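In the design runs reported in the main text, the only information available to the sequence generator was the tokenized backbone. The following block is the verbatim input for one such run; it is reproduced so that readers can re-run the procedure and compare outputs position by position.
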């Protein structure tokens, strides 16, 4: 069964983040209304653009999304 993007993102959490994706994961963990079950790029992207002040750049999401897609190929 495929993971949602949020489930994947939670595997990237790190108490001492080494990169922007890890920091994104740490912040998303505390986001109570993040679309946790979604696997839809457009839905998550739109949500982040409108609601995620903690995400400094959408390119961070793009990078995390690419890693997510790569992880789902196996």
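Verbatim output:
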């Amino acid at each position: 069964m495929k993971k949602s993007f949020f489930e994947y993102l939670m595997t990237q959490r790190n108490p001492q983040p080494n990169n922007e994706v890890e920091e994104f994961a740490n912040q998303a963990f505390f986001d109570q209304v993040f679309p946790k079950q979604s696997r839809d790029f457009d839905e998550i992207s739109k949500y982040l653009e409108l609601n995620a002040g903690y995400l400094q750049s959408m390119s961070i999401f793009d990078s995390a999304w690419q890693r997510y897609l790569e992880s789902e190929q196996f």
